Amino acid sequence: MKAFRSNSYLFGGNAPYVEELYESYLNNPGSVPDAWRAWFDSMQMVPAADGKPETRDVAHAPIVQSFAERAREGTLQPRVMGGDAATARKQVFVQQLVAAYRNVGSRWADLDPLKRQERPAIPELEPAFYDFSEGDHANIYSAANTYFGFDNAPLRDIVQALRDTYCGSIGAEFMYISDQAQKRWWQERLESTRARPNYSPEKKKRILERLTAAEGLERYLHTKFVGQKRFSLEGGESFIPAMDELIQRAGQVGIQEIVIGMAHRGRLNVLVNTLGKMPKDLFAEFEGRHADDLPSGDVKYHKGFSSDVSTPGGPVHLSLAFNPSHLEIVNPVVEGSAKARMVRRGDRNGDQVLPVLVHGDAAFAGQGVVMETLNLAQTRGYGTRGTVHIVINNQIGFTTSDPRDTRSTIYCTDVVKMIEAPVLHVNGDDPEAVVHATQLALDYRQEFRKDVVVDIVCFRKLGHNEQDTPAVTQPMMYKKVAQHPGTRKLYADRLATQGVIAADEGDRFVAEYRKAMDEGKHTVDPVITNFKSKYAVDWLPFLNRKWTDSADTAVPLPELQRLGERITTLPADLKLHPLVEKVVNDRRAMARGEQPLDWGMGEHLAFATLCAAGYGVRLSGQDSGRGTFTHRHAVLHDQNREKWDAGAYIPLQFVADNQGQFIVIDSVLSEEAVLAFEYGYASSDPNTLVIWEAQFGDFVNGAQVVIDQFISSGETKWGRANGLVMMLPHGYEGQGPEHSSARPERFLQLCAEHNMQVCQPTTPAQIFHLLRRQMIRMFRKPLVILTPKSLLRNKEAVSSLDDLAKGEFRTVLGEPDQAIDPKKVRRVIISTGRVHYDLLVGRRERERDDVALLRIEQLYPFPHKALEAELRKYPNATQVVWCQDEPQNQGAWFYLQHHIGEALKDGQKLAYAGRAPSASPAVGYYDKHYAQQKELIAAAFGDSKSRARKTA
Which three-class secondary structure state does DSSP give residue 879? Predict the structure, then answer.
């Protein structure tokens, strides 16, 4: 008993079993044992004035806290009100035993198909740990607060029910969930059935047919395309019946769209056996044929697919997201796509759209984007009302690793405990248990709208890919694998023994599937053809359009003034902070033409005009409501109210009666997951301007995988158009290495084949026209905007309402009319971004009327004709200088120099003025920054002591 008190997790600071008893007592006092009921009754009684006890309404929290305190003291047990104290004590131990199995029974579950896992020593699961003797096993105890179907039973029956429920083919983890209702839901669903399904013969045959399809495809490919990589599902075939059950049951409960994300393992099997891709099309990819409409294409196990399948509840649209080799990076992309579909349907509760994410065990535990994506689950801007996660857990990780080296947790799924998502670990060799776990997972998601995980513990028959020899590094494991007959064979034999199928019927299933493969037919019945949902988006108008820099983005002046008035007319009872009140008053003056427009007003009018025209706008980032540099103030906070819903007002949501939706979100502190989420959102909605804004442009480094694998190459690899906008604050202003550069050189290095746009606008009018152009042109390309910091309030970086009412985005900005005499110009300085304004000041200070300043506002696609036209205005210019803030090995210099060189006339040479090459994006000392900035400006003007470097 002393060992029990010192070692049991039920003592110390943890008393969950008592809290559960108390919850049951509050709902129904008769549901708990007599000793506990008497104890809880005593807590509800206090002395009255006359000395007699009376009942009072006691707060729940203090009593629960008292449980924890008594547990630490080792005194957590009821006072016995009559009866035998020893019997009452053992009744308490029964309740503790129940709690132990609910908490850690999964550790004893029969999960490993290879039978290699040793059962750990967990004393709390042994009756002897609680001083029960062999003679006690026949004694009758109360099973109150359980759902086994009996109120009282011998101890042996209670223990057997616990082991059947929590230590069979399903090991459930859910007791860490804070909400009592959710914990009770799991207890009832598991204990009432002993975690075992009772399927009809027809259901069992369906499971066998899906297992046969899973195994059949892999074996067919293995013999037909020997040695080719396919990342086989062999050893994890139960995943296909799980997906079949998930889709059919989802349709039955009203789900109409399922968005799926998964990496390589089993992907080809899902394409053919779940989504209904024609086998002959897959075979063509194995034979090396390619699509002529994709410049580069991708390997077969990265490709996505979509289809419509029939379910008992009607058609369900399935979308498998395209995914690169970066495994879990697809997770937030899927969540973003699901969110866009929910918004389009007005599906606030996830009744119609379901995200499903399929993971590998090592990647789920090892990749940080998993945690970042989980952290989005319950947030307002990114939550999708519950995701079903399925782990194909092959127990070996990715290549040759030992599980002890792939994680520091007991289970690969332990990361989900951060959001209290329940986990069902299930033996992949028990396909009925796998299907049952999938049913439970979906039912839980539908009931509570939260994430849930099914961890299919299986194995990998072949290596990481089909060219590996895993026995080299895992000899004992692969001796077991070689002896394993296969899940399909085991299940077919089991059904034959039960009399569900004839002895040879399993072989007939195999022959029928092989015949379908030979004929290249559908293996999913029925796949619906020519079905189109009213919520489907037609992307055809945006595809295969010829590139153009031009768009009619001008807005009539009266409309600009009307919208300016709307976004500055606020509720009378809205109390603004004095600084924000000034911003709003200034904007009101700008709308009336009394002040020039600043950057924030240029953005606001762009958003307002788009929303008024019916487009949606979705803007997210770590400070997007206010703006990192407090220039935006799209969300106005009432100074008399703290609560967000009651104390915030968003003027851009009230610009027109039937306007497009305007959403602005202050995101979680993540770059990778949030950017990928917004990419996924934009991939599903071409009619919404989707913007991700970095807090500082430098922070986009944390999302480089998203940029490389999706944004820059998604169209050329997969044919996926996407209009995502990235706003990256960029500019050298002495703030150090992590607050200066958005690394434009990295984006420019990725630019080719008109895959995206990289722009650095320098006036409010330019950002106005640029944002509008992104939606008005009838094609969708990602847009990278290097946005300013100090220019947000620069008195010279302003525009007029006429600039918005006329013209369009200009890829190159030249000198204003009559600013200088073109014939006097001997030197032309070309730049991009904020350094232009330093050059403007430098020219003024030097009184140099022989220098012209040009700005390249669109770095890619490079505006050759526009630049040539500007340079031709200065026939006497012999010197052309490129000036930039960034070090020479960074910024746009290496990318632009040959483009600018093409625009030069005979006799002209291009020179560079800027910082010297550097290993760091910027210096951290302000005085050194200032000296460098002063020198590069001097070099641009050719001052005697600071000469610009000429190119070769």
Answer: strand
Rounded Cα gap, residues 482 and 497, in angstroms: 24
Comparing 275 with 292, which gets the higher pLDDT? 275
For residue 29, the tally of other CB atoms under 10 A from its CB is 14
| Residue extent(s) of CATH 3.40.50.12470 domains in the chain | 557-732+740-805
State pTM to two decimals: 0.90
Q: Please, how many CA atoms are within 13 Å of residue 71, restricted to the half-sphere of its CB?
A: 20
Compute φ and ψ for 478, nearest 5 degrees. Answer: -80, -10
What CATH architecture applies to the domain 201-528? 3-Layer(aba) Sandwich (3.40)
CA distance 567 to 531: 42
Fill in the amino acid letter for 117. Q
Find the angle CA(123)-CA(129)-CA(135) to the nearest 5 degrees. 135
By the 8 A CB rule, do 247 and 210 touch?
A: no
Answer whether residue 151 shows pLDDT above 80: yes
User: For residue 337, which amino acid is it?
Assistant: S
Amino acid at 2: K
**Distance set, CA 551 to CA 771, 773, 774, 807 (Å):** 11, 6, 9, 9
Q: How far is residue 925's CA from residue 620's CA, in Å, rounded to a whole number?
A: 32
HEC per residue, 506-564: HHHHHHHHHHHHHHCCCCCCCEECCCCCCCCCCCHHHCCCCCCCCCCCCCCHHHHHHHH
Q: Is the dihedral of CA 302, 305, 311, 314 positive or negative?
A: positive
Which has more confidence, 292 or 214? 214
Q: What residues form DSSP beta bridges with 911?
A: 881, 950
Contacts of 640 (CB under 8 A, 6+ apart): 575, 647
Q: Which two tokens stand for residue 514?
A: 């092989």
Q: Which CATH architecture has domain 816-950?
A: 3-Layer(aba) Sandwich (3.40)
- The per-residue DSSP string of 103-140 comes to HHGGGGS---TT--PPPP--GGGSGGGGT--GGGGGSE
> What is the 3 state secondary structure string of 312-334?
CCEEEEEEECCCCCCHHHHHHHH
CATH fold of 557-732+740-805, please? Answer: Rossmann fold (3.40.50)
CA dist., res. 611 & res. 626, Å (int)? 19
Q: Where in the chain is the domain with CATH 3.40.50.970?
A: 201-528
Question: Considering only CA atoms, which of 45, 50, 132 is closest in space to residue 91?
Answer: 132
Residue with more model confidence, 929 or 26:
929
In the predicted model, what is the mean pLDDT of residues 352-379?
94
Which pLDDT does position 325 carry in this prediction?
Answer: 81
